[in-house]
Design a protein that fits this description.
It contains eleven helices and 18 strands. By secondary structure, it is α+β, with helices and mostly antiparallel strands. The protein has two domains: 267 residues, 3-Layer(aba) Sandwich (Aminopeptidase), CATH 3.40.630; 108 residues, Alpha-Beta Plaits. Strands 1-2-6-3-7-16 form a six-stranded mixed β-sheet, sandwiched between helices. It has a four-stranded antiparallel β-sheet with strand order 4-5-18-17. β17 and β18 form a beta hairpin. α2 packs across α5 and α5 packs across α11. The radius of gyration is 24 Å and the shape is elongated.
């Protein structure tokens, strides 16, 4: 019987060396060259452990990477295991020099270490160990690392969805939720909508009656949107950005708002989108144009996902560490894989604090636990 924790502990140096190597490559989403560099690094690493690697060139974002391991025998399971992670971070260049990569009181601190360089390293090291130890499962395995997840996966979404087709399950190597490091078994759907109001300009002092204020009309619609909030049932609508007007003494001819919408269920998404698209102007002389959509569908906790989470939580208990499950308002590529009907365990990658914030860190001892759980999952699911 395999002692997964002992196996993970025996590769501690290898794991943390790779985490450090990846963190030291700064990868803000907007920098294609930086993400191309880290894509090349992980492509070589995946190739070294037997993956059939393909780099997917991109024009705007960094190149995405997939790796495939076909099944070893004819009687293998036909459905593949899918592992998904992202190489980009929210941190601009220069953050590493300012923040540093340091160890303190059992934690490693650095930009992107939690979200999600530790999860990437755990995937690569874990697969390598399982391969070397002869513990490889009798099913195909696919890995996808993209470079645009932090901005909603606009270029990699088709690749995520294509990779998810026919998968038995997906392990999303994002960090666990909050300080507990919980699996995320519910994620809200995310929508972005834009409201553009066009009115009629006029001199605000001499001829105000000749104008039609786009800002005035937009203000009414923002209040209407605000009334759609239902926090108790998980519906949040936030007007996050507004712009408009040309001068203090001119009736504004244009105004625009960017709206963030989050919902728990597909039913809510359809209802709220219908309400937003039904908005109409009430000030004479103004017109309203509405664009946008839900770019991440809700990830709902299906019976299949609940069963997958229960297995992972049970194994963590066998290993002597606590793993729970939670819901979150944020989105990830798990929203996309789950929408394809694939049970998706999100939050496998690491446990730590302060994602996207000063003091981002991972818990060192917990990372060994995560490596053990990942290997067990690949071997046994």
């Amino acid at each position: 019987m395999t002692d997964w924790l002992a196996l993970a502990n025996s590769h501690e140096t290898e794991l943390f060396d790779l985490i450090e190597r990846l963190v030291m490559i700064e990868t803000p989403t907007s920098d294609k060259a930086a993400n191309d560099h880290i894509s090349s690094v992980v492509a070589d690493l995946l190739t070294s452990i037997g993956g059939v690697v393909k780099v997917h060139p991109q024009e705007k974002f960094g190149d995405h990477v997939t790796a495939d391991w076909p099944a070893d025998s004819n009687d293998a399971a036909t459905q593949h295991a899918l592992i998904v992670g992202h190489l980009d971070t929210v941190w601009p260049f220069g953050t590493l020099e300012r923040m540093g990569y340091t160890e303190k009181e059992g934690r490693l601190y650095g930009p992107g270490v939690l979200d999600m360089k530790a999860g990437i390293a755990t995937t690569i090291i874990g697969l390598g160990i399982v391969r070397k130890q002869g513990l490889w499962p009798n099913r195909p395995i696919k890995v996808l690392f993209n470079t645009d997840e932090e901005v909603g996966s606009p270029s990699s979404r088709p690749l995520v969805e294509e990779s998810a087709k026919g998968a038995e399950y997906a392990l999303i190597m994002e960090p666990g939720q909050a300080g507990a490091g919980a699996l995320k078994t519910r994620r809200k759907g995310l929508g972005e909508f834009r409201l553009l109001v066009e009115g009629k300009a006029s001199h605000a002092g001499a001829f105000p009656e000749r104008g039609a204020s786009a800002i005035h009309e937009l203000a009414h619609r923002i209040i209407e949107l605000q009334m759609m909030n239902d926090w108790t049932n998980g519906i949040t609508i936030n007007t996050g950005i507004i712009s408009g007007g040309s001068a203090r003494n001119t009736i504004p001819a244009k105004a625009e708002a960017v709206i963030d919408v989050r919902v728990r269920t597909n039913e809510q998404a359809a209802e709220i989108e219908s309400k937003i698209r039904a908005l109409t102007p009430t000030i004479e002389g103004t017109t309203l144009t509405i664009t946008g959509n839900f770019h991440r569908p809700p990830m709902e906790r299906t019976p299949q996902l609940a069963e997958l989470a229960a297995k992972l939580i049970g194994w963590s208990e066998d290993f002597g560490f606590e793993l729970t499950e939670e819901s979150t308002g944020g989105g990830s590529d798990a929203n996309l894989t789950a929408a394809m009907g694939v049970p998706s365990a999100d939050g496998m990658g690491s446990k730590g604090l302060n994602p996207h914030a000063e003091g981002e860190n991972i818990q060192i001892g917990e990372q060994i636990n995560r490596l053990a759980l990942f290997m067990k999952a690949i071997n046994s699911l």
